[in-house]
Amino acid sequence: MNCDLCDTKLDVWAGEGQPMHRECLLRSVLGGIGHLLDHNHFCINLKDPDAGLNFRTSALLVDVYVANIGIEEATRRADLG
């Protein structure tokens, strides 16, 4: 079975509903790693919230980003976009 968001193999998925990786769900809510790091550059200028990365790689980096700064700060920064 593949993740509905990134279309890569699922070993474990987030839970009820559609099969998705936890990291892909997080990326869907907060935005891609480019959006979180520099919204103006990646989203406005390049129109690429994932900073040139595929969805899954961006999702994995968003997960690391949140682990480092915390969900509250990540959510605040995502809203600043």
Offer a quick outline of the entry.
By secondary structure, the protein is mainly alpha-helical. The chain contains four helices and no strands.
How would you classify the quaternary structure? single chain
Instruction: State the helicity in percent bands.
Output: 55-70%
**Series of H and E elements:** HHHH
- Mean model confidence by pLDDT: 91
Radius of gyration based on Cα positions = 13 Å
- Please outline the major beta sheet: none
Number of strands: 0
How many individual helices? 4
- Class of secondary structure makeup: mainly alpha
> How many domains in all?
1
Note the gap between the termini. 34 Å
- Beta-strand share of residues: under 5%
Shape: globular
Task: Give the low-pLDDT segments.
Answer: none
Task: Tell me what the structure shows.
The structure is a single chain. With 81 residues, the chain is an all-alpha fold. The chain has one domain. The protein contains four helices and no strands. It has helices spanning 22-30, 33-45, 55-69, 71-80. Helix 1 crosses helix 3. The longest helix is centred in the C-terminal third of the chain and has 15 residues, at 55-69. It starts with 21 loop residues before the first helix and ends with a helix. The mean pLDDT is 91.
